[in-house]
């Protein structure tokens, strides 16, 4: 299947509430449209606690604004430090709490940039924000080979094999208007 056809199939899968895998600029991820059902399905695939919150992936400021309740401090920090290799833990918009899993009214948000990840950016532009997590079984190394991901999870994958050691995104909590680096 050529890349254009695979991208079309991925978008169809997403609009049908299926999980797909797309390479990010750090690791491959498992992604779906935002819903508690899809969050739980990702957790089941990863063999982790079913109510574990997953990440929200956005590509525009209106998407970020729609899904979060940012203070001026939080917004300014994100604007100054925006990177598609950093995830920010911020307050979830209360109106969205029925859409995704959140134990404490927060959400981990990751910004995707067109220059760093064209396939994922274009997918989000077409179908909207996604929920996701790294493509691995819980407590196991991230999978870096599309064929291995297809075999393990039985889903469609966009991206070439990663031949170098990758690391997950940096995690920064902005809760309480303070910066707390959770993972470097």
Short structural description:
The chain contains 6 helices and 9 strands, in the order αββαβααββαβαβββ. With 184 residues, it is an alpha/beta fold. It has one domain (3-183): DHBP synthase (Alpha-Beta Complex).
Structure description:
With 184 residues, this protein is α/β, with parallel strands linked by helices. It has one domain: DHBP synthase (Alpha-Beta Complex). The protein contains six helices and nine strands; from the N terminus they run H-E-E-H-E-H-H-E-E-H-E-H-E-E-E. A nine-stranded mixed sheet has the order 7-1-2-6-3-5-4-8-9, with helices on both faces. Helix 1 crosses helix 5 (118-127). The longest helix has 13 residues, at 3-15. It is globular and about 45 Å long.
**Helix content range of the residues, please?**
25-40%
Mass-distribution shape: globular
CATH architecture assignment name:
Alpha-Beta Complex
CATH superfamily: DHBP synthase
Q: How much strand?
A: 15-25%
- Gyration radius over CA: 15 Å
In whole angstroms, how far apart are the ends? 37 Å
CATH class: Alpha Beta
Q: What does the largest sheet look like?
A: 9 strands, mixed
Structural class: alpha/beta
Mean pLDDT: 91
Strand order of the largest sheet: 7-1-2-6-3-5-4-8-9
